[in-house]
Amino acid sequence: MSTRTGIEESVAPPPEGTPWTVLHLVRWSAVYLAGKGVPDPRLDAEHLLGDVLGMSRLGLYLQYDRPLTQAELEGFRVRIRERARRKPLQYVLGRAPFRDLELEVDPRVLIPRPETETLVEEVLVWVEGRGMEALAGLDVGTGSGAIALALALEGGFGKVVATDTSEDALSVARGNAARLRADEVEFRLGSLLTPVGEGERFDVLVSNPPYVRREEYGDLAPEVREWEPEAALVSGDRGVELLDQLVAGGPRVLAPGGLLALEVGEGQAKAVAEMIRGTGAFGEPRIRKDLAGRDRIVLATRDRDSRSTNWEGR
Ligand SMILES: C[S@@+](CC[C@H](N)C(=O)[O-])C[C@H]1O[C@@H](n2cnc3c(N)ncnc32)[C@H](O)[C@@H]1O
C-alpha cells in the first residue's frame, strides 16, 4: 500500500532463489530509507543505484526488470547503509553538481547549494552587463571551490583568488581545480581578507560565508549538523559577524566600481544592506531572491569616488 508520500509501507524481498531487480530494489530501499527519516527516499535510492550501475535515473527505468549481480548488490548495500546514517547523498556519491560543473565533495567541505548558484548567476549578469573581460575575482571561504571555479570556467575571469581558513577545504578545492583545469584560480589560506596583499585590488569580491547563528545550529537537519563542517556554517551569536567584517573590509580590496556580492541567511538581507550603507563606500545595495523566493543575496558596487573614507580599512 502507498502512503501520501508515494512510498509504500513495506516491500517484501524477492522469494528465495529469485534475484533482486532494479525496480524491486528501488522500491524496497525507498521504504527502508523512509523509515530512517531520509527526506527524499525514492529519489536517493535511484541516485545510489544509478551510481552502482553507472546509469542515469531514466536508464534505471528503461531496465527496471534487470537482475542485479551479487557484486552490484553489495555495492548498493554499502551506499544505502551510509545514506541511512543520514550521510548526505552528495557525500555518499562523492560528488555534487554546481551549475555546469561536477565537483568532488566530502565531509571536509560544505556541499554547494542552489542559492549559491544564484549568487554566481548574479555576478555573471553584472559582469556581462558591463562587457568586462579578464576580471580579477576574490572568493572568500571557497570550500569545495564552487564559486571560484564557476567564475573562472564559466565567467571567463582572468584571475580568481580563493581563500579559506580550512586547509582541508583548500585541499578539496585544489583537487577540483586541477581536475577541471582551472589554472586561473589561486588558493590562499587565511581568514577573511587577510590573505589579500597590500595594494591588491579585485573587480569582484564574492562570498558565501558562514552565517548560521550558534543557537540555530542544533536545529539543523542531521545531514547538515552531523556531517557538514561546523566551521563552514556557524558564524557566531548573531550570524552576521563574518558578513559584517567582509562588508567593512570590502572597500580596501575592491577596485573603484567593483562588485561586492554576498550570500546571506534568511532574514539577514536587510541588516547586511544597512551595514553596506553604513560604510559610505558603496552605491545603494540591491537584494536578490533565491529560487525559493527568499531574500538571500546582497549586491553593491564600490563607489568610483576613491575619496569615500567612511569605512574601516581592514
Ligand atoms: C558556507 S561555506 C561556503 C563554501 C563554498 N563557498 C560554497 O558556497 O559552497 C563557508 C566556507 O568559509 C570558510 N570559512 C569559515 N570562516 C572563515 C574565515 N574567517 N575566513 C575565510 N573562510 C572562512 C569555511 O571553512 C567554509 O569553507
Radius of gyration from CA coordinates: 22 Å
Largest sheet: 7 strands, mixed
Global morphology: elongated
Poorly predicted regions: 307-314
Strand content: 15-25%
Number of domains: 2
Structural class call reads alpha/beta
Distance between the termini: 62 Å
Bound chemical compounds: S-adenosylmethionine
The CATH top-level class label of the largest domain: Alpha Beta
Task: Summarize the amount of helix as a percent range.
Answer: 25-40%
CATH superfamily of the largest domain: Vaccinia Virus protein VP39
- Got a strand count? 11
- The order of strands across the largest sheet is 5-4-3-6-9-11-10
**Whole-number average pLDDT?**
94
Order of helices and strands: HHHHHEEHEHEHEEEHEHEHEE
At CATH level 2, the architecture of the largest domain is 3-Layer(aba) Sandwich
What name does the CATH topology of the largest domain carry? Rossmann fold
Task: Give your account of this protein's structure.
With about 325 residues, the chain is of the alpha/beta class. The chain has helices at about 20-35, 40-55, 55-60, 70-85, 90-95, 115-130, 145-155, 165-180, 220-225, 240-255, 270-280; strands spanning about 95-100, 100-105, 135-140, 160-165, 185-190, 200-205, 210-215, 235, 255-265, 285-290, 295-300. The strands form three sheets. The chain has a seven-stranded mixed β-sheet with strand order 5-4-3-6-9-11-10, with helices on both faces. It starts with about 20 loop residues before the first helix and ends in a 13-residue tail after the last strand. Bound molecules: S-adenosylmethionine (SAM). S-adenosylmethionine (SAM) binds next to α7 and β4.
